[in-house]
Write a structure and sequence with these properties.
It is an enzyme of class 1 (oxidoreductase). Its EC number is 1.4.1.1. InterPro entries: Ala_DH, Ala_DH/PNT_CS2, AlaDH/PNT_CS1, AlaDH/PNT_N, AlaDH/PNT_NAD(H)-bd, NAD(P)-bd_dom_sf. The protein is an alpha/beta fold. It has an 8-stranded mixed beta sheet, with helices on both faces. Strands 9-8-7-10-11-13-12 form a 7-stranded mixed beta sheet, sandwiched between helices. The longest helix is centred in the last third of the chain and has 22 residues. The structure holds 1,4-dihydronicotinamide adenine dinucleotide (NAI) and pyruvic acid (PYR).
Length: about 375
């Protein structure tokens, strides 16, 4: 199969879909990899390294996009929609639930759109989301700590406190991969950490992992409102796979937060869990202030640490890319239920229920389309 790797064009998106090591694995399996010149530079991978690994370099995005399968990192931006063509296999993060225009473009062009974030293993885990959630979770506490500094717009507190001065309070809503990683770093900084989750089993697991070093609390509107009144940094880390994020924090709850406190809404890529994170911010201009609270809502946080992120992402995507390329997407998805769950659009239909529901579109089962 011929596989294209275009350069990412989102604001400060320095990741690339494939390292030279990944290219070599696919090349050794008999596939042709076409890499847009300079695609790896932001992650510290030179064009020559791709050539040595067996890739063909091309000058334009159009050439990289005109292959049978395209692998990317971020969901395509409007400027990229004109590259879509019927039957193209697009393997990337998509986050379609909050993206009606992208969903429509993929349907209209009959793209086989396989979303990294909905590839789901039998045990419910999301293997192609996990490494980026690990990165974003760890970054969320670092970033929150920074924006609590006075010069950055925060209330001017040190999360770890000092002897004689209270520690900062961090509340994490959603105790999955992002939440757990955010907790590790916040604890490392010396903060007083609380995790709120809806799943009693998950709260139990968190209690087993962290013991009495953190507080665990059941998710409900009353508990969230009460915790946020005394929180310095709140991190949004809830996910319902494929679906628009639930707005768990109302505008009134935000109004009740302390002036100079900070929100980091990591779940913004699925629409965000705060009523007040009504826009996506960028690494260039990452925050805005509303009701005295600083809001950070960058949808490609791992793009800021591209070297770590690109290697982490390629580690997990290559085995799936090999299945798609070796068997063709139909057989690969029929053989592997996890990959099948990744298909979000196929033959002009939405094939992921939560996405169809988000846009009020007809849902069609991917398995039955592949079986025809
Ligand atoms: N902004 C960015 O750059 C990045 C964003 N993300 C996003 O972060 C979000 C979280 O991802 P993961 O941690 O990997 O998901 P996950 O599936 O590991 O964890 C989600 C957690 O939310 C909990 N949850 C569900 N409903 C809840 C509710 N009503 N109240 C409280 N908790 C609830 C679940 O029980 C689960 O523990 C996703 O939207 C993901 O796409 C991930 C990486 C980068
Ligand atoms: C998960 C995602 O969208 C990202 O890493 O940018």
């Amino acid at each position: 199969m011929r596989i294209g790797i275009p350069k990412e064009i989102k604001n400060n998106e320095n990741r690339v879909a494939m390292t030279p090591a990944g290219v070599m694995s696919l090349k050794n399996a008999g596939h042709e990899i076409v890499v847009e010149m300079g695609a790896g530079i932001g992650s510290g991978f030179q064009d020559e390294e791709y050539v040595e690994a067996g890739a063909e370099l091309v000058q334009t995005a159009s050439e990289a996009w005109s292959q049978e399968m395209v692998m990317k990192v971020k969901e395509p931006l409007k400027e990229e929609f004109n590259h879509f063509h019927e039957g193209l296999i697009l393997f990337t993060y998509l986050h379609l639930a909050p993206e009606p225009e992208l969903t429509e473009a993929l349907i209209n062009q009959k793209v086989v759109a396989i979303a990294y974030e909905t590839v789901q293993a039998q045990n419910g885990t999301l293997p192609l989301l996990t490494p980026m959630s690990e990165v974003a979770g760890r970054m969320a506490s670092q970033i929150g700590a920074q924006f609590l500094e006075k010069s950055k717009g925060g209330m001017g507190i040190l999360l770890g406190g000092i002897p004689g001065v209270r520690r900062g309070k961090v509340t994490i809503i959603g105790g999955g991969v992002v939440g757990t990683n955010a907790a590790k770093i916040a604890m490392g900084l010396g903060a007083d950490v609380t995790i709120i989750d809806l799943s009693p089993e998950r709260l139990r697991e968190l209690d087993d992992i962290f013991g009495s070093s953190i507080n665990t609390i059941m998710s409900n509107p009353l508990n969230i409102a009460r915790e946020l009144r005394t929180t310095d940094l709140v991190i949004g880390a809830v996910l319902i796979p494929g679906a628009k994020a639930p707005k768990l924090v109302t505008e009134d709850m935000v109004k009740d937060m302390m002036d100079g406190s900070v929100i980091v809404d990591v779940a913004i890529d699925q629409g965000g869990i705060f009523e007040t994170t009504d826009r996506i911010t960028t690494h260039d201009n990452p925050t805005y202030e509303k009701h005295g609270v600083l809001h950070y809502a960058v949808a490609n946080m791992p793009g800021a640490v591209p070297r770590t992120s690109t290697i982490g992402l390629t580690n997990v995507t290559v085995p799936y890319a090999l299945q798609l390329a070796n068997k063709g997407y139909k057989k690969a998805c029929l053989d592997n239920e996890a990959l099948l769950k990744g298909i979000n659009t196929l033959e002009g239909f939405v094939t992921y229920k939560a996405v169809a529901e988000a846009h009020n579109l007809e849902y069609c089962d991917a398995h039955s389309l592949l079986d025809e």
